[in-house]
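Reopening this one. Same input as before:
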Amino acid sequence: MPLPLLAFSRGALVAATTSAMLLAGCANMSETQRNSAIGAGVGAVAGGLIGGNGTGAVIGAGVGALGGYAWSRYMENKREQMQQATAGTGVQVSQTPDNQLKLNIPNDISFATNSAAIEPRLRPILDQFAQGLGQQPGMEVTIVGYTDSTGNDAINNPLSLARANSVRDYLAARGVPARSIRAEGRGSHDPIASNATEAGRAQNRRVEIYLAERAPAQAHSAPPPAYNTPVGQPAR
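Same output, byte for byte:
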């Protein structure tokens, strides 16, 4: 067998094995751990195809876990802060596979039927979310509004966008730079539950808020430092 093909096979084997191990272990992980592992698995597959001797899988796993965003100590602290602030409210706080902090806010604490006015119970949560973001460079906030399938797009699309805009304006009024906030409405598209039941429709009526931290530009352009640390151990 020619050497390049043999090297490719070994890299692919490492990538496949890494992905299988990650998927097998996901059942016993927390959501945060599982999302990071999935991201790492995607990177491992790509890395395995790049690195002929298997080292590409190791490097690719790190890139995949980052997903273009940085999960810093600040992001972890923010996640813990929001979990405490939303306890008992029905808001789901999680880390996405590409390292964004996600808040899934149900409609019963966010907006009344056919209204884009923020409910009083949501305001303390948004206050906590906005706290300190004005002093954090590189932060990006995305707000997405959704409705259930009741009605039609001519009603649902503008309503979902109006709700996202209400959240955007509220955050901006509390110090989050408006230029860093993006709002969009998706109406009844992308449901997370069946619209055939009231319980499912209630889940689909929601607002999702995403917080992401961009790594500094120089982190991508600077050459990698020369570490004497063995692969797999963090450099300190």
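So the earlier flakiness isn't reproducible anymore. For the record, Strands lie at 92-95, 101-106, 139-145, 181-185, 206-213.
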